[in-house]
Every structure is written in C-alpha cells, then in structure tokens.
Specification:
The protein has about 110 residues and is of the alpha+beta class. About 25% of the residues lie in helices and about 35% in strands. About 20% of the residues are buried.
Length: about 110
C-alpha cells in the first residue's frame, strides 16, 4: 500500500471501520498460481483479509479464478492497478463483487 498518498495517513482503525470490506473477483489466473503468490501481489495495495482460489474438480487443478477479501478503498486501488496487467504470463481480469460489507456501528459512532 502506498503510504505516501495522503488518504492513507489516516489512523488504520478508523479507516477500516469507516469503509468496510469488499470482494475482488479475479479471473484468468495461471493454474499453477499459489495463495502465497496471489497474497503477495494483491497485498501491495492493502491488507488481504482472505483468499479463496477455486479448483476445477474435473481437471483437478486451479480453475483460474480467485476471490479476495479486502477493505473497500484498498480493493478499489488493487483492482484499478492490476486489472489487465500481466501476472505469470497471463492478463488478469478483476471485477468488484456485490455490495460492500458494512461495519456495524453504534449510533454514537455515526458521523454526519
């Protein structure tokens, strides 16, 4: 994550509470990609909260699809920077999945 960007100078706890989480849908991965490689690549843009690499039962190998959980703003940065880029000789295609998972807040924490 680029900490030189003034947006990321906020306290991380406030940042994470304010913006919630989002899933990235990544396709066209190499069938030989590992979770560690993917976490290293995506982790450059923020905290990776979870990775699920899907398997093809018929082929018995990685299907080329992964779901990555990140904080919203970090997920947007990763998608913007990595969509269409080559990784392990393949062009990545990244889309944002579903709705943002909002963090639960007490009424006193809601800012107007």
């Amino acid at each position: 994550m680029d900490k030189s960007n003034s947006f990321f100078h906020q306290d991380e706890a406030i940042f994470r509470e304010e913006y919630g989480q989002m899933k990235l849908h990544i396709t066209n991965l190499s069938p030989r990609v590992t979770e560690a490689e993917l976490k290293n690549l995506i982790g450059k843009y923020g905290t990776v909260l979870g990775i699920e690499i899907t398997w093809s039962r018929q082929a018995g190998r990685v299907s080329g699809i992964a779901i990555v959980d990140m904080h919203v703003v970090e997920a947007l940065a990763a998608a913007r920077q990595l969509n269409g880029k080559a990784f392990r000789s393949r062009r990545l295609y990244i889309t944002l999945m579903g709705e943002v998972v909002e963090q639960a807040r007490q009424p006193s924490q809601i800012r107007v």
